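Quick review question:
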């Protein structure tokens, strides 16, 4: 028995030759000398260390292939037959439509959320639709780390940003549809900090909120990116990045002249925060005009989770997001995306105990959001119930982007006169197929005709999650999302009972 995937992966289009696999190694139980190497081991025999990373990057998203034994499926949702909390105790008032989903972040400058959902950091694929949908649904969205690298016109001099034309466009994707809920936040990693991105964003572009990331790339690891040539290696080194081996090393230069230079890799630095350096950085950004501060944290060692939560408390952070195993950006190591970190439900268990300690000490507790492998309304409800009263939001990143991509694709097919077979029974026009357009027209009037269908797709998906949440809350006779708690879920295993008590660790 194994919870880990065998020696094959969609990350690399690798397959097992035999249907008989040794569970411990994940290799075919019979390895043949005539095999062309279709598995991960075989691909490694050709590409070497490059197979640590996915070969299928680009216009894709990546999720973990590991079947973690601890997840939200080990809980069921409770239900009740009597009474009503948060609404008048009569059948006319106590309906799914009257379940309140709005919340508000903590801190000195609270942000109103129309739903207890956020869109975590992203800056690839249909990012415009992603950020627009966040504004339309009324929640927080986060611009992913390394955003200057997406701008072909990006410029910097003497180690500091001097031009980042794409940032105002990114902000406008949200601001164009902003209706008073949520906020667009700029995430910065150590490389972004080194080139002055947060300072530039606040001073030059009016960014109001910064998210500090404790880690690098997805879930905390540091990506090594293969460079294609000696010239590219030098350019990357000139930009301030770590490049291995050093293209300016005399030995490497001579090897390059002979056409024998090794494969070059650029590497993103590990953040090295201390309490002093972190608080000085935050103070500087607040003096520049930053109004809201966010933290992003992976499912790392429980002692580090507590330390970051205490730092967030001391710094009066508005929101902190904890990202559970697995998955990643598509630029992270394959096995990191499968095997690294605590699953989201385990992070929640740890947070329950830590927050109880902070509360007993009389400390401020930020608005806490959990994300990582969550895509359906039952998972969202379970996460909010298990984490109550401390975890108040759930991040839906990959699923929301998937919805944006589908909406965009269907829109393009409609423009060419094609309707996918599975959708024909629902209608043959934009208005017939995208059922949330009517509500969007109520919100935005004729402006709705300009909204890209990718954004409509993401918005529609989020509305489905919100509507599903209302059903589960009403099933428990609770008509305000703030009222749900651990009594609204049923642990199905001993692990589930420990997790919900906060005693799993």
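Suggested answer, residue by residue:
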């Amino acid at each position: 028995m194994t919870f880990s995937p065998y020696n094959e992966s969609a990350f690399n289009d690798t397959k097992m030759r035999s249907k008989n696999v040794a569970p411990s190694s994940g290799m075919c139980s019979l390895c043949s000398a005539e095999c062309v190497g279709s598995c991960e081991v075989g691909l490694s025999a050709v590409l070497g260390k490059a197979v640590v990373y996915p070969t299928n990057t680009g216009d894709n998203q990546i999720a973990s292939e590991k079947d973690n034994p601890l997840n939200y499926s080990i809980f069921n949702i409770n239900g009740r037959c009597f009474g009503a909390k948060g609404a008048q105790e009569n059948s006319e008032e106590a309906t799914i439509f009257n379940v309140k989903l709005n919340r508000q972040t903590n801190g000195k400058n609270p942000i109103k959320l129309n739903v207890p959902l956020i869109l975590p950091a992203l800056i690839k694929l249909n990012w415009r639709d992603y950020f627009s949908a966040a504004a339309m649904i009324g929640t927080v969205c986060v611009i992913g780390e390394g955003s200057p690298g997406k701008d072909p016109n990006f410029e910097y001099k003497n180690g500091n940003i001097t031009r980042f034309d794409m940032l105002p466009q990114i902000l406008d994707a949200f601001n164009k549809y902003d209706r008073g809920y949520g906020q667009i936040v700029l995430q910065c990693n150590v490389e972004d900090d080194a080139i002055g991105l947060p300072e530039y964003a606040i001073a030059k572009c009016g960014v109001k909120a910064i998210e500090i990331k404790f880690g690098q790339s997805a879930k905390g690891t540091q990506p090594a990116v293969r460079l294609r040539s000696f010239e590219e290696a030098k350019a990357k080194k000139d930009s301030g990045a770590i490049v291995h081996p050093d293209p300016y090393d005399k030995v490497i230069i001579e090897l390059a002249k002979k056409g024998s230079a090794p494969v070059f890799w650029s590497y993103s630095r590990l953040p090295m925060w201390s309490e002093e350096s972190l608080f000085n950085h935050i103070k500087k950004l607040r003096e520049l005009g930053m109004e809201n501060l966010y933290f992003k944290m992976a499912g790392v060692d429980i002692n580090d989770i507590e330390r970051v939560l205490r730092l967030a408390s001391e710094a009066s952070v508005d929101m902190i997001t904890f990202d559970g195993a697995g998955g990643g950006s598509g630029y992270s190591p394959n096995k990191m995306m499968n095997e690294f970190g605590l699953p989201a439900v385990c992070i929640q268990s740890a947070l329950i105990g830590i927050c109880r300690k902070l509360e007993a000490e009389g400390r401020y507790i930020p608005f806490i959001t959990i994300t990582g492998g969550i895509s359906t309304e039952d998972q969202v409800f379970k996460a909010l119930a298990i984490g109550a009263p401390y975890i108040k939001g759930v991040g839906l990143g990959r699923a929301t982007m998937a919805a944006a991509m589908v909406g965009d694709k269907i829109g393009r097919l409609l423009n060419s006169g094609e309707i996918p077979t599975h959708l024909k029974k629902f209608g043959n026009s934009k208005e017939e197929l995208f059922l949330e357009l009517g509500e969007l027209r109520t919100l935005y009037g004729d402006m709705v005709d300009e909204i890209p269908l990718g954004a409509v797709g993401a918005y529609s998906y989020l509305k489905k999650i919100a509507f599903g949440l209302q059903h589960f809350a009403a099933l428990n006779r609770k008509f305000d999302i703030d009222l749900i708690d651990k009594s609204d879920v049923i642990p199905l295993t001993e692990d589930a009972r420990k997790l919900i008590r906060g005693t799993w660790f």
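Why it works: Residues 240 and 309 are 31 Å apart (CA to CA). The chain has a mean pLDDT of 93.
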